[in-house]
Amino acid sequence: MIENALNYIVGLIQRLATTIPTSCKHTSYTQQLSQLYSNATTSESLYDLLILTVAVVLALELVSNATYHVPKAFVKTIPVRGKHLDIFSVKDWAFISFNKVLTGTFVYLYYGYLWSVRKQHMGHGHNEHSLEHGCCGGGKGIWRLEDLSLTNTILPIPVLFVVYDFFYTLLHWFLHIKAIYAYVHKHHHHQKAPSRANIDAVNVHPLEFFLGEFNHILAMHLVVKGTPLLGFQGMDVSWLAATLFIGLGGILAGLNHTRHDVAIANKKSGWTLYDSKHHDVHHRIPQSNYGQYTVLWDRVFGTFREYDQNDRVNPAYQLDPRTGMSIGSDKKD
Hints:
Layout: H1 2-17, H2 29-40, H3 43-69, H4 90-116, E1 141-142, H5 150-153, H6 156-175, H7 178-181, H8 198-201, H9 206-225, E2 237-238, H10 239-255, E3 263-266, E4 271-275, H11 276-284, H12 296-301, H13 327-332
Parallel strand pairs: 1-2
Antiparallel strand pairs: 3-4
């Protein structure tokens, strides 16, 4: 049974891979998108995408539950200072459900992009579904196990995070502009004290979710193909690096929306790579800490605000560990 399941998954991946057009300087982006749409909207491809979406949603549930439950035994709890959103509305659940489903399409296009710029391997014949193409500059997507290395698997990860957060910080700041805020990002800030991990993380307007998720593809494109104007010629990125990037990103985004006090820092130097409390500050004081995974660019742009453990704590806002709801809500009932 396991062997049959693995064979089915491999076959599904291979079928979806054949729908991805090869990135090439001789083909315009419009032509590539048109070809992708034509290939991906056949009945077989749509069925495969449905199966992929179900698998991705189940994986997200595992990650969310692990992010929520596992750290409880090892880390302290961040006191609740903002009002916790105890009960989700129909709109909340509609946004959460839609965004989870959208993740399947994102995963398809994310890996599809890396497949479209895959490394050329000579000697196996050249056809539209082979691993060969020599028309593109910059780095390549690395898919063969024997080609994995530190330079295409470990080195790209911090670069991907830095590039992603540069654009995410700008996007997040833009969504807080007064004329725009009420129409898109305000929904996410109904929650002043996120606690449900990835469930609270994806409780955003679908437009915001789309922009945030597909920013990963933009980051991948810029890291692989480079930015010649800045003197960066691109680098090879393996499928494993791509997986670690979105996997770690999903965990960090989930931790940002829990009460878990998780930090990656050097206490001697005072240098902090990641701190879940920084995003907690953002939910209470929105004009600060716009970064998703780090506050590097907030420090550069002057929007960083440190967590203050001496800020006032309202006992009624604290969460009941049994229910996950505000203690004050029980008294009201």
